[in-house]
Fold:
Amino acid sequence: MGREEVEDRMRHLAYVGRRLVAMIPVAFGVTLIVFFMIHLVPGDPARTLLGVRATDESVAALHVRFGLDQPLWKQYLDFLGRLVHGDLGQSFFYNVDVSELVVGRLPATIWLLVAATILALAISLPLAVLAATHQGGPVDQVVRAVPLLGLGMPSVWVGIMLVLLLGLKVRAFPVSGFGTTPAQHVSSIVLPGLTVALALTPILIRSLRTSLIGVLDSDYVVTARAKGLSRGRIITAHTLRNAAVSSVTVLGVNIAYLVGSTLVVERVFGLPGLGTLMLDAIFNRDFPVVQGVTLVFAVMVVLINLGTDVVHGALDPRVELA
Amino acid sequence: MSALLELHDVDVEIPLPGGTLHAVRGVSLSAGRGQAVGLVGESGSGKSLTLRAAMDLLPVPARVTGGTIVVDGVDVTGMTPERRRKHLSSVMAMIFQDSLTALNPTMRIGDQVAEVPRVRLGMSRSAARARALDLLDQVGIRDPESRYRAYPHELSGGMRQRVCIAIALSADPALILADEPTTALDVTIQAQVLGVLARLRQERGVGLMLVTHDLAVVSGTCDELNVMYAGRIVEHGRTEVLLDAPRHPYTAALLRSVPDPDQPVHRLLTIAGQPPDLMNPLPGCPFAPRCPAVVERCRTEVPPLLDLSAGHQSACWRAHEPEDWPQAISEAALEGVLR
Amino acid sequence: MTAVVAGPASPTGRAGRVARASSLRLNPTLVAGLSLLGLIVLVALCAPLITHWDPIQQDLTSSLLPPGNGHLLGTDQLGRDVFARLLYGARTDLRVGALAVLFPFVLGGTLGLLAGWFGGWFDLVLMRIVDIVVAFPFFVLVIALVFALGQGTSSIYIAITLVGWVAYARIVRSEVLVAKEQEYAMAARASGLPTRRILLRHLVPNVLLQAFVFSMSDIVLSILAIVTLGYLGLGVPPPTPDWGSMIGEGQAFVFTRWYLAAIPGFAVVITGLSLALIADGFVQRSGRR
Structure:
């Protein structure tokens, strides 16, 4: 038995390894895009960076500072080289390393993402189970209407509505800031987390419900019923796990969108995260920070996708053979 | 032999957007302890639904709308679903046609076999595992230890079906209901799986109710046969008798359409006509439109199951005079396909 | 699972009537969605007829008035009539939203069509690019691009196009791959018709349908993006009325004039609802789930 478990673990690791290797070209491509963003605009990139503050001297200074006179491929290699050392450049505005800024702002964003995922699952799962087990009934109709309304709700507006209803009228949670203690973090993250979660729930409910129905209709559930198992056991041991498989994929696909919406939600709730860092940098025309944060976001998405792939492989043994 | 499963005049209806489908009409049959009973018919005859009705596993819109079902002396028709489930699963078990979809793809097969002992019989983890290994051995899986941790997609079709039988046995049933268990398997594997079922019958007295469209399968396995057409039982009796001297035109046509490997085949014989419309059933015998032996009475009155001799019944107004049926029965080619 | 036997068709019976209604292919969801959208578009088009107020006319002496006195929804901080801004804002957001979907549709659809049909290295490279673009969160890349290109409506179009084409490329490509295997494509190839003709006559109509259904929910996404950009001040440049900037400006007054931020949001939700209903209606119609 021990040998079999070792074999399982090896197979799992090999799968993870394969996924990592597949991500390398994507990682390169990401750096390429981030690097070239500034060169998209016709004309002198230095002038674009400085915008209205461009003077001949400042433009020339920027050329020297960023080596903009060198051939493009050399610039890119330099860029990659710096990246490997964790050097994301220096902020124009704050005169501090971008990486320092990023590290400082990372916690708030991660708290937000985690809170959002937990809340999204906590809301979607019970609703989807209810809808699928009472398919066609009034509960199901109501649950199916939720995504129709929810898909069109701007996170911005949802955030403001929550502030209005739960933050101001009822004063249940703080409406801005992050606090300094973990306890304060938790209470500050509820409303923003809920806002982001509500952006995810329509999609999640839909896909969970569909896959649950598919599973409930499937033959192995009939076998389970033939075995005389109780309804609860059928749902927990047989239905949920199989339905989770396809939903993990859906979650993974939508994570990118989710991460993006944290940007605006942080602004609405005044959270000191990567999103507000980026938005401030945009208004300050602080290009290195914009570039750096974009890169960090992309890396986060890639890592989260790797994570969901791994979870998917762990849940569904048929996948790891691919 | 006391009857383990009795269906009395059972109806199953399926409400659909276009109308109600009368899939099973007034079906009565029984299976006694240790008996092997066959239920044959073409696609759409209602045989699968009859089996599922007995096990309370009808797919969602379908419902039992008439008759009674008695399992081990207990009338389960009016019971609450929970109580019924408990009683049924303690007496009977079921296996299905597609063993791949019948098994949970993300659960190891050993755990699936051990599930009933653990969850319903309250055994400890190790005791359940031991029982599962024993069951896997009983169904003829060699080296069950190494197979225990396999997933369904890692096993061959024949193995998987044996696993399904092991699962069925795990609750120690007195009767196994089998819905086309060998249809998806090739002939040699078919024989093996049927062999397992036969052995279980001999050694442990586990009864069998087998649904299939394949006459070859029932001829070797079942003592008694029920032939179904358009939701009704049209003939019932001992297998040898039915196969040798059928007393219903449909049964006769079924037999004729099976090519005899020893005879040269001139043309493949089929049954003329269209399959019956179960949404708007005709008055009279359902086979009347296609029956070469039809007379006026057949179109207006539904023949009940008439006793011919001990244990042999046929739902045909002309069951007593098979010699007078037109010979044309064997020459009915043209449209209509037996599936 | 059920072995249902189809009876002989009865064109005059109840079964026949059911068949005829569905052949019109209008289900309640689709009708509801189209009507709602139609209403919104109508209201937007008739804005000058519905209200006489000029949405960009400022009147600092009448700033932040509550509803009443000729102002159906009051005025905002610059004295502009809120109701008028709402109606004219519909014009802006609907127009930009629809156009911003058109370009990715065309670009992504074409690329996907070519990649799916010809395959080979073109397909490989394209799919790699898709993987890379998809690695970026949608908003982040759009905002970064708008930043790089400078604020303005054309920047919005370009940014959304550069990020949004991938979804269409994927959908069209996978539909093409499926359709390629279908009998009619093989038959057309066997009969010697030139490649372009096969593409245009046989594959495009079916493939377009799937992309079209997706574009309905993509318009919602696009409007959300524009609204969000507007909120951040990066959207359609002022003074053009736009729901997003209304929300952004209204947030500051959420204590006293909560509706300034809330009502434009409702408008977005209703618009999104109509488009979601249309998308759902189409899905029901085609029978795919």
